[in-house]
């Protein structure tokens, strides 16, 4: 609990001090994801850990309806202001939410869930498992979950100090590096569509796509 609170304060401070944190250009993952979601006929997206909204706003500009969540109110207020400024507030909503808590949507009501560089934050493996279970609960059958996380192939892996439970400290932020075993573990009871390594801003990441299985007919 202490780590969780400290992380929330760290992120809040980071966003208050740096209005440009993460930039405004969409991530590589968001550009890739709009094509996937578009081809799958998805029109609504729940984004977790959306930060100041570079990807939420991009998804909205591409025609998706986006509900963006984060546990930093500083980030979300900038996201809301940018949505209003860009005339996207009919397609983007934003709400404060800690992903350790149950997800607000009812069962099987969401078309897709998207989380860019969020699951590799300060979560225990048990918290990660319960988060993916929650995501599966809210998705409609056949719904898609796309996430990206730092990989153990990243050069920082092993170069920052370990703080226990497989977590590392990086400038006051706690983080985890994912190997294929963890990716596969989190895809248990899902259809794993793909797990691909890619590079962005000198980081090596996994991009993972998994689908909630449709019930057997
Ligand atoms: C590396 S940033 C990525 C932000 C955004 N997805 C992007 O790509 O610009 C990680 C984000 O996760 C959020 N976050 C970390 N832990 C969280 C938690 N427990 N619940 C909700 N959001 C969390 C942080 O506030 C931050 O906005």
UniProtKB/TrEMBL annotation:
One of its GO terms (biological process) is methylation. The keyword Transferase applies. The keyword Methyltransferase applies. Gene3D superfamilies: Vaccinia Virus protein VP39. Residues 1-24 are annotated as: Disordered. GO terms for molecular function: methyltransferase activity. InterPro entries: Methyltransf_25 (IPR041698), SAM-dependent_MTases_sf (IPR029063). Signal peptide: none annotated. Residues 45-143 form the Methyltransferase domain. Keywords: Methyltransferase, Transferase. It comes from the Bacteria. This is Class I SAM-dependent methyltransferase. It comes from Kribbella sancticallisti.
């Amino acid at each position: 609990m202490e780590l969780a609170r400290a992380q929330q304060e760290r992120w809040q401070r980071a966003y208050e001090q740096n209005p440009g944190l993460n930039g405004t250009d969409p991530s590589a993952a968001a550009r890739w994801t709009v094509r996937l979601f578009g081809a799958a006929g998805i029109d609504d997206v729940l984004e977790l850990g959306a930060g100041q909204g570079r990807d939420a706003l991009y998804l909205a500009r591409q025609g998706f309806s986006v509900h963006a969540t984060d546990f930093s109110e500083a980030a979300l207020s900038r996201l809301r202001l940018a949505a209003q400024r860009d005339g996207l507030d009919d397609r983007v909503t934003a709400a404060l939410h800690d992903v350790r808590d149950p997800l607000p949507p009812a069962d099987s009501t969401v078309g897709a869930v998207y989380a860019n560089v969020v699951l590799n934050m300060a979560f225990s493996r048990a918290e990660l498992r319960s988060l993916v279970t929650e995501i599966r609960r809210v998705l409609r059958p056949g719904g898609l979950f796309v996430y990206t996380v730092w990989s153990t192939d990243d050069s920082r892996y092993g170069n920052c100090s370990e703080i226990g439970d497989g977590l590392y400290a990086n400038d006051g932020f706690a983080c985890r590096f994912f190997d294929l075993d963890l990716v596969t573990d989190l895809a248990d009871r899902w259809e794993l569509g793909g797990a691909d390594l890619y590079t962005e801003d000198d980081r090596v990441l996994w991009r993972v796509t998994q689908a909630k299985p449709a019930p057997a007919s």
